[in-house]
Amino acid sequence: MAQREFPPVDEQMELLQRGAVDLVDPAQLRAKLERSRRTGVPLTVKTGFDPSSPDLHLGHTVLIRKMRHFQQLGHRVIFLIGGFTARIGDPTGKKATRPQLSEEEVEANARTYQAQVFKILDEAETVIDNNDRWLGQLGSHGMVRLAGRYTLARMMEREDFRTRFQEGRPIHLHELLYPLAQAWDSVVLKADVELGGHDQ
Description:
The protein is of the alpha/beta class. It has one domain (45-195): 3-Layer(aba) Sandwich (Rossmann fold), CATH 3.40.50.620. It contains ten helices and four strands. A four-stranded parallel beta sheet has the order 3-2-1-4, sandwiched between helices. α3 (58-72) links the parallel β1 and β2 (76-81). It is globular, with a radius of gyration of 18 Å.
């Protein structure tokens, strides 16, 4: 990858903080931007979208526009389609288990996402990937190893699972895999920055 020149870090921080609800660790982002500017190597920025419906919605556009800001600054963005995680169903903020989608529904929705995202992102500067590529290859042994990296006690710290448990609402075992799969995406993609909710 050819070295790039990036705008001054203060200028980058101003643009990236504009419109952001929360920035988990501004000092860490600043340090990564400084390293990137010093080395000429762009940051890898990942954002995941589960194709649980045929259309991207208004809430998605906030994240996609922030991805565009990173592109404008010269960084590498990955538009991650959650082909695997969509079949689990995102439990974040849900009081009940999401209905599971078929592989065919997920693939059809993913195709529409690819067509829609380039209304905002620069197609030539966007990497599109699908987490089914690595998560679908894990198999049962790999999934058990992944699950062994986390505890149920830690999972129950999540407000959505804790609330459902306290209210006696069901939490299906497959839902517990969702945050693990989501975290593994960032490991596989070697993301420097992840855009999304606090659950990520």
